[in-house]
């Protein structure tokens, strides 16, 4: 990469004062400074690039409705929802920025340092989106700051942003002072912007702020039509990513699990924003490690590959799909036995996803099937009711059978237990159903032939008015169908 060696990169601490203070020079920059002549030259001769034909973002109506619901829940309170700041990866490089889910859900904006503020007005609120304006050309920020537009790219003007997001927009660099002077009750979403929190330190309480966070988490339990469409897009791209992987398994065998990770990542970056979480590309005994993301192991014919991966769309909605595949295209007898047990458990779990049913039903149904198989195989002493009551199956099933899905892979995590795990399923909810069996390589309580085999099958399920719809049904699940699918892809040209 090009080193911005004549400047010191902007940070959240110095960004706000750049308009008033000279931009600092990098300690070991190759240029000792900027001449007056060069500084003057860089101020002029630039074309007007203001965009005048912008249309609102696709979800503008939905984000407005979400803000209205938030306003109704907290009348009279000032509500502050930051997007977050850049985080340093090493020295002067940052991690790719991802706006806070709460902020993106309410605005559709994804830029760093943004803040949504809902000011109480009469019976409701007046929303203002606070963003960084275009880089300043008078003081040289646009070419001298590490976050100037000549280094990281153009950002929208405040006027452009108003057209895109349908919200009045102001300069975020003025916000901290406004918040310090604010009176009346305030709530802020914590953990994303230390500067904004510092400006509100004497005006907020942890309890009130947690109520805001919980509400915004529970608001996402039921997806609107736009969200369901985005989730289907994410799943469709994920299906293509899985197909990509199957086509290159021979190359993965010649290298490592990293080839699988890179292959799927290419699809995610071409068709979406990113992967929704670190891809689990677990071959052989690595499949028994639930969150194997090192992806540095060998890929061997005769072993299974557990691939748990999801594409994230440009609007932050992620798929979360798992398939366990025989690397050579054919399950061995013991692999098929374990796989089919997990498939049967998943079938029972999916069938239990119904509107009006308890959220826990799909987990209980899947766990019962797995407990029955473990007893039948002689791996744990029955009866099945005893096994389930004591949770003895968990030695090999390990995790819950699913979770809510959306803008976070484990969506709505701050929701109250009574509305989530102990809640009732409603049309529009989207959740994963993902039972698994994992026999560790060093587990002496099972026959040797079981050891080192891990199987998980995961699909993304939409609760509908009359049942459910498997958003990821395009990927085969039954063991014989998986084999036929893999055979059909071998040697196929990547689309």
Automatic annotation (TrEMBL):
<feature type="domain" description="Aminopeptidase P N-terminal">
    <location>
        <begin position="58"/>
        <end position="197"/>
    </location>
</feature>
<feature type="region of interest" description="Disordered">
    <location>
        <begin position="1"/>
        <end position="32"/>
    </location>
</feature>
<dbReference type="InterPro" id="IPR036005">
    <property type="entry name" value="Creatinase/aminopeptidase-like"/>
</dbReference>
<keyword id="KW-0031">Aminopeptidase</keyword>
<keyword id="KW-0464">Manganese</keyword>
<dbReference type="InterPro" id="IPR029149">
    <property type="entry name" value="Creatin/AminoP/Spt16_N"/>
</dbReference>
<dbReference type="Pfam" id="PF05195">
    <property type="entry name" value="AMP_N"/>
</dbReference>
<dbReference type="GO" id="GO:0004177">
    <property type="term" value="F:aminopeptidase activity"/>
</dbReference>
<dbReference type="Pfam" id="PF00557">
    <property type="entry name" value="Peptidase_M24"/>
</dbReference>
<keyword id="KW-0479">Metal-binding</keyword>
<dbReference type="InterPro" id="IPR052433">
    <property type="entry name" value="X-Pro_dipept-like"/>
</dbReference>
<comment type="similarity">
    <text>Belongs to the peptidase M24B family.</text>
</comment>
<dbReference type="InterPro" id="IPR001131">
    <property type="entry name" value="Peptidase_M24B_aminopep-P_CS"/>
</dbReference>
<dbReference type="InterPro" id="IPR000994">
    <property type="entry name" value="Pept_M24"/>
</dbReference>
<keyword id="KW-0378">Hydrolase</keyword>
<protein>
    <recommendedName>
        <fullName>Xaa-Pro aminopeptidase</fullName>
        <ecNumber>3.4.11.9</ecNumber>
    </recommendedName>
</protein>
<dbReference type="InterPro" id="IPR007865">
    <property type="entry name" value="Aminopep_P_N"/>
</dbReference>
<keyword id="KW-0645">Protease</keyword>
């Amino acid at each position: 990469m090009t080193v911005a060696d004549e400047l010191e990169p902007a940070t959240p601490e110095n960004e706000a004062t750049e308009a008033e203070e000279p931009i600092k020079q990098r300690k070991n920059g190759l240029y000792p400074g900027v001449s007056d002549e060069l500084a003057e030259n860089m101020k002029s001769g630039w074309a007007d690039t203001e965009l005048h034909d912008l249309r609102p973002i696709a979800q503008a109506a939905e984000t407005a409705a979400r803000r209205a619901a938030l306003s109704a829940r907290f009348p009279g309170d000032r509500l502050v929802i930051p997007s977050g700041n850049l985080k340093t990866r090493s020295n002067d490089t940052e991690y790719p920025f991802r706006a806070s889910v709460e902020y993106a859900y309410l605005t559709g904006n994804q830029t760093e340092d943004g803040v949504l503020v809902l000011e109480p007005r009469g019976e409701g609120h007046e929303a203002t989106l606070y963003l960084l304006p275009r880089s300043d050309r008078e003081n040289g920020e646009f070419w001298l700051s590490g976050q100037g537009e000549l280094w990281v790219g153009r950002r929208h003007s405040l006027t452009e942003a108003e057209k895109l997001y349908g919200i009045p927009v102001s300069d975020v660099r003025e916000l901290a002072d406004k918040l310090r002077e604010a009176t009346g009750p305030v709530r802020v979403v914590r953990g994303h912007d230390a500067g904004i929190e510092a400006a509100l330190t004497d005006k907020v309480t942890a309890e009130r702020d947690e109520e805001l966070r919980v509400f915004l988490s529970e608001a996402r339990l039921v997806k609107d039509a736009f969200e369901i469409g985005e989730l289907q897009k994410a799943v469709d791209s994920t299906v293509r990513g899985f197909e990509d992987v199957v086509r290159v398994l021979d190359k993965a065998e010649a290298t490592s699990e990293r080839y699988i990770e890179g292959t799927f990542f290419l699809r995610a970056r071409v068709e979406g924003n990113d992967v929704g979480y670190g891809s689990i590309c677990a071959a052989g005994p690595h499949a028994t490690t639930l969150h194997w993301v090192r992806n540095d192991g060998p890929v061997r014919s005769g072993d299974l590959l557990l691939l748990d991966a999801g594409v994230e769309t440009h609007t932050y909605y992620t798929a979360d799909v798992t398939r366990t595949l025989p690397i050579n295209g054919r399950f061995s007898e013991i692999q098929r036995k374990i796989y089919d047990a997990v498939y049967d458990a998943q079938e029972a779990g999916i069938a239990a996803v119904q509107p009006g049913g308890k959220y826990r039903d799909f987990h209980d149904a899947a766990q019962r099937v797995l407990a029955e198989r473990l007893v039948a195989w002689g791996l744990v002493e029955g009866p099945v009711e005893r096994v389930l009551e004591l949770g003895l199956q968990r030695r090999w099933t390990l995790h819950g059978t699913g979770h809510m899905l959306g803008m976070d892979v484990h969506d709505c995590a701050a929701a109250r237990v009574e509305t989530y795990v102990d809640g009732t399923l409603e049309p529009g909810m989207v959740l994963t159903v993902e039972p698994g069996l994992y026999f560790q390589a060093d587990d002496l309580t099972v026959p040797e032939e079981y050891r080192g085999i891990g199987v998980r099958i995961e699909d993304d399920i939409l609760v509908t008015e009359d049942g459910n719809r498997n958003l990821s049904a395009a990927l085969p699940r039954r063991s014989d169908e998986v084999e036929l699918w893999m055979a059909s892809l071998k040697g196929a040209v990547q689309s």
